[in-house]
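Extended Data, panel c. Modelled sequence:
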Amino acid sequence: MKNLTLTLLLLCCVCQSFAQNTNAFNVKVIGKGEPIILIPGYSCSGEVWNETVDHLKSKYQLHVLTLAGFATVPPIPNENILQTVHDQIIQYVKDKKLSKPILIGHSLGAFMTLWLHSSEPDLFGKSICLDGVPFISAIFNPTATAESLKQDPKFNKAVVIQNFINLPTEGYIANMTTAMAYQVNDTVRARQIATWSFQSDRRTLGSTMVEMATTDLRPVLPKIKQNILILASIFESKENSVKVYGKQYELLPNKTLIVANSKHFIMYDQPEWFYAQIDAFLSKGNQ
């Protein structure tokens, strides 16, 4: 009897573990009103949106995501993690019967925003892409194609994942904090972002990096029907940002591109400017 009880307990634990690991994201719902889904960037917790949530929660129902494997959220075992995130967000909107939710995505979250819109043009409302692009690899190599990168050994997923696994734990946060100084002004914010990266699943970090780098959404941008506000950071200079982001989003029909005087984490570096831009955009209605 004791052995049977122990076996049942172990089975329950295993079942619970599998159930947790099938969720491609965690979500927190805050506020009431028109729905907005906030999608954070690479390795970040949904807490990256805390101040944005405080700004918007009196008027909107906010669905704040943290993707599986990022920060403290358990990873999923799927081979194509971002595809699973994409599919489950669509299913979440349908299951919750959300009426044309607005998407606000940062970095990888902006990439996901474009992907969702191109897959389901009538499911989502107007949206905001915060310093993210449809094909990040072309920023550094304009001649790159998704297919050529998939054949490049530098983008071999198994190798990249192993490189992340091999990163030493000692000094990780300190080194990442130094690296984040190029993406955000505030050192406290930089350390928080570095900590989220440290807490993230190494396999997920490697896999999602390769998945995004080898996926080119530019050809599907014409499918997007809704208005998209693109808020870009300074990439060498404001003029260069306009050129680079303009080229990335060239095929997007309904867009507004504005360059912030900011590094990558615009919501941290220029919060009041950011709030003014999103307020003005959202106040025009869900068109």
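The radius of gyration is 19 Å. This feature is highlighted in the accompanying rendering.
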